[in-house]
Model the fold of this input.
Amino acid sequence: MTAVSDTMDDTPKPEEGIRLTEQQLRARRARSIAIALALGAFVVVIFLVTLVRLGSNVLTRPM
Amino acid sequence: MSVTLTRIEPSIAGVGDYVALMKPRVMSLVVFTALVGLLIAPGHVHPVIALTALLCIAVGAGAAGALNMWYDADIDARMARTAGRPIPQGRVTPGEAAGFGMTLAVFATVTLGLLVNVIAAALLAFTIAFYVVVYTMWLKRSTPQNIVIGGAAGALPPVIGWAAATGSVSIEPILLFLIIFFWTPPHFWALSLYRTEDYARAGIPMLPVVAGEAATRRHIVLYTLILAPLGVVPWLLGYAGALYGIAAVVTGAAMIALALRLHGEGSRQDSRHGACRQMFAFSILYLFLLFAVLLVDRMSGGLAALAAGRFPI
Done:
């Protein structure tokens, strides 16, 4: 292995890996916002249903 | 399929593609019929609970749609009506659609069970499983009775809505189930009559492909003759008032008239399937009207009670 790597150029290549195109970046951003909104809505639903289910009992608890 | 399966490029799927995976037009009818089931149920449901139940049912329906598109990507690509869907277009991979669908299905079912009630959640889970496993994976590709039996999945939403409100199931939602169940075959067979080549190319054994046009037209008449009287039954049993009764009789008669016209059209050589298209379009209006009038009929009676009583939690 060392013999092989010795023969190769060891200077690091800064631009390796997948680079997203402008379109892919835009699509990913849109998807991320949609997921954030969906999760936010989920939190709001849980919160509201908790209030509705507990009602005034939210104040009643063992001291 | 192999092209989309092996895509390693980062996704370019937009939010719209994922919305399309949830079959928004099917979802709208599901939400509407579930809403009717929920609102005509006895007792009062808190609006927040009702909205939560509807949201879960909508997401559950979307999950079923996404899982259907995952499994059917190969035949969707071969049919003109469905070739533009996100997976055949290569914008979403089958795996992404499957993950999306499974995630939504689990979230919708668990949320409905925890926030509303377990009976409704069990019915929703059964509906999704029935649509994906029994209809999509098994019946759709193997028998011309596919949409007859598979129609049970589309007929369940009013029962889920009722269960969300009451925690139980009774004869009224079962009647609504039966109405949609017997509505589905004439509705889809009318469509399949003018899409026969599409279905044949995709290898789906729809009735006109397997049994021919004449048999399909006879079946449409037969099912419509069951459907129209069934539509009137909620009034006959006293579950709905005269307004609903009149609407059910008139629209039911129109359905039968259209079915008979469609049957007569089959014997003419120059048939352009005009009656089939009319039957398909009117069948959607028929179901919508039937449920809308039922809702108005029941709500007008219930508003007075609501005004008189305290708003219960």
In short: DSSP finds 15 helices and no strands in chain B. Chain B touches chain A through 17 residues (CB under 8 Å).
